[in-house]
Write a structure and sequence with these properties.
Elements (H helix, E strand, L loop, with lengths): L5 H11 L9 H11 L5 E4 L5 E5 L6 E7 L4 E7 L5 E6 L4 H4 L3 E6 L2 E8 L8 H5 L8 E3 L5 H5 L7 E4 L4 E2 L4 E4 L2 H17 L7 E7 L7 H10 L3 E9 L8 H4 L9 E4 L5 H13 L5 E4 L7 H7 L5 E9 L7 E4 H17 L10
Parallel strand pairs: 3-12, 3-13, 13-16, 14-15
Antiparallel strand pairs: 1-2, 2-12, 4-5, 4-9, 6-7, 6-9, 7-8, 10-11, 11-17, 14-16
Helix pairs in contact: 1-2, 1-6, 6-11, 7-10, 9-11
Length: 356
């Protein structure tokens, strides 16, 4: 049995199927917008592309929830005389991950399938085999016979994503590209569902942010617009429960053991305690991870916007980040949404977040 409703699972699968790299998030945001409208009478889209679902706007404190909907991708930079496409990265890529992948070029003509090619190992000398893979050594083959033929389907500047492939594994685990951080956008929308019908004092702004992978850009603009007193980012977090895991670096974090809470300068101490207390009250298992510097997530942008706000980060444990097979637990995702909903429901205008 799924640890979430069939409707929520259907929303997740639909969301994960949308090709939406940074700067090109419209397909995924259409799905988020439709979902949020089921639970909010005020769903907005700003000029940057952030989608904002509002509940109880006259309440206090104003709380912003941020999960970024964009994924890493590629962009066509050159089409050679034979119709092969060369590309650069959108966001942080390990070029070795790209080798041999099936991709989709997002063209004005529609979704154009292709494959990423590389010189066969049989034709490499020993020196080439030992070299680090670089994007300059790779290309996309869409089956074109020439540049003119390729340009009938694609153009320089077209974004590219790994072909969507949502896989259900054992023990309620699922794998897909783009869980970083499509699952965060799913969580903030699910929080609206969980809050529907509850009497809450806080004003809630659930934001599906854009362009996080290229510099937290959507969180910067949407936080300036919302001007929250409290900001909770939802992202994915590193685990150490696989053969190459490093618990000394990321802590003893496991898939299926609940959401990750964080401690460090990016986390407001009072809000951090509130999240822990809400988890304990609701009997939601959680894991702790140290963050001695800025987190590199939307929590960082929210903390620093305008005059600053009380910020925190809640993460869904994720194996194989920034790969086509990012792996998460459905239970962890559902528990993350529950934890945030319970925390928000407990907030009141009397709460203070100034460190003391």
């Amino acid at each position: 049995m799924l640890p979430m409703t069939k409707d929520s699972f259907s929303f997740l699968k639909d969301l994960m199927s949308q090709p939406s790299p940074s700067g090109f998030e419209v397909p995924a945001q259409k799905v988020v917008r439709a979902r949020m409208k089921l639970f909010s009478g005020d769903v907005r889209t700003d000029v940057h592309g952030n989608v904002i679902g509002v509940v109880n706007p006259k309440g206090a404190p104003a709380v912003m929830l941020a999960g970024h909907v964009d994924e890493i991708g590629l962009m066509v930079t050159h089409i050679d005389a034979n119709g092969f496409l060369f590309f650069a990265s959108i966001g942080g890529w390990d070029p070795a991950i790209a080798v041999g992948q099936r991709v989709i070029v997002l063209s004005e003509k529609g979704e154009i399938p292709g494959v990423i090619g590389r010189k066969p190992i049989h034709l490499m000398d020993a020196g080439d085999r030992a070299k680090e893979v670089k994007f300059d050594d790779l290309w996309i083959d869409i089956g074109a016979s020439s540049r003119k033929d390729a340009e009938k389907a694609v153009a320089v500047g077209n974004p590219v994503v790994i072909k969507p492939d949502f896989i259900e594994l054992r023990n309620e685990l699922v794998a897909s590209r783009a869980f970083d951080d499509r699952i965060g956008a799913w969580v903030v929308a699910e929080v609206l569902r969980l809050l529907k019908g509850r009497r809450i004092k806080a004003a809630v702004y659930a934001v599906s942010t854009v362009q996080e992978e290229i510099g937290l850009r959507g969180a910067v603009t949407s936080t300036f617009n919302v001007h929250p007193q409290v900001g909770i980012a939802v992202d994915v977090g590193f685990t150490s429960d696989f053969p190459a895991g490093e618990p000394k670096k990321v802590g003893d974090i496991k898939i299926g053991k609940g959401p990750i809470l964080h401690a460090g300068p990016n986390i407001n101490p009072a809000l951090g305690r509130m999240l822990c207390q809400a988890a304990k009250r609701a009997r939601i298992p959680f894991q702790m991870q140290a963050e001695p510097r800025a987190t590199g997530t939307d929590a960082n942008a929210m903390q620093l916007a305008r005059g600053g706000c009380a910020a925190a980060l809640v993460s869904v444990p994720n194996r194989y980040m920034h790969s086509p097979v990012e792996l998460i637990s459905l239970s962890d995702a559902e528990q993350t949404a529950r934890l945030i909903a319970e925390t928000v429901a407990a907030l009141s205008p009397k709460d203070h977040f100034i460190p003391a």
